[in-house]
Design brief:
By secondary structure, this protein is α+β, with helices and mostly antiparallel strands. The protein is 31% helix and 19% strand.
């Protein structure tokens, strides 16, 4: 589950929205299967360790693609099963 709260700084000319995302196991499994079968491709620009997440999202240069934050080896093994 992803939960965001109110932002600390509200943009003067913008809008912020709070949201909650509840993952659906069946849908996530389908996405994984499509990636494995080659029916869904990803555009990964950078993979970073959890300890480097802040720096990964504040790059000194623009990187094309999504930034992936790699969890612990225990979590990675569990997700791969």
């Amino acid at each position: 589950m992803t939960v965001t709260g109110p932002t600390e700084a509200r943009p003067a000319d913008g809008l912020t929205i709070d949201f909650v995302v509840v993952p659906d196991r069946a849908q996530l499994s389908e996405v994984v299967q499509r990636v494995r079968n080659g029916r869904l491709r990803t555009n990964i620009g950078k993979v970073a360790a959890l300890d480097d997440a802040v720096a990964a999202f504040n790059p000194t240069e623009r990187i094309k693609g999504k930034t992936i934050i790699r969890g612990s080896e225990r979590v990675t093994r569990r997700l791969a099963a």
